[in-house]
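Kindly go through the following sequence and its backbone structure tokens. Advise at your convenience whether the structure tokens fit the sequence:

___
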Amino acid sequence: MGISDIDDTIRRLAAFAEAGAAVVYAPNLPDMASISAVSPQDTATLADLQTIGVRRISLGVDPYTHALGATQAAAVKLAAGDLTALASELDFGHIIDLIKG
């Protein structure tokens, strides 16, 4: 946590994997170069990650904080009298396509 040395991160991930860890996790990699350094792929699409054997992707607290932010924004609009504030703008077809990869 708080270490920005990608070589150290890779060394630690490899050590855990060699010790038999079923899962290794490098949270909050700062950029695609770091993801590429940890992964043999140049890009990190869901399909690429699946191809290299990734079976679980953790989004951490991000979905919760996104939902909380949307709820707070809607509450502000509702308090101001905007009764359409809770109308969904989600494109579920797009979300399903993202999940399918």
In short: The two ends are 30 Å apart (CA to CA). Residues 71 and 89 are 13 Å apart (CA to CA).
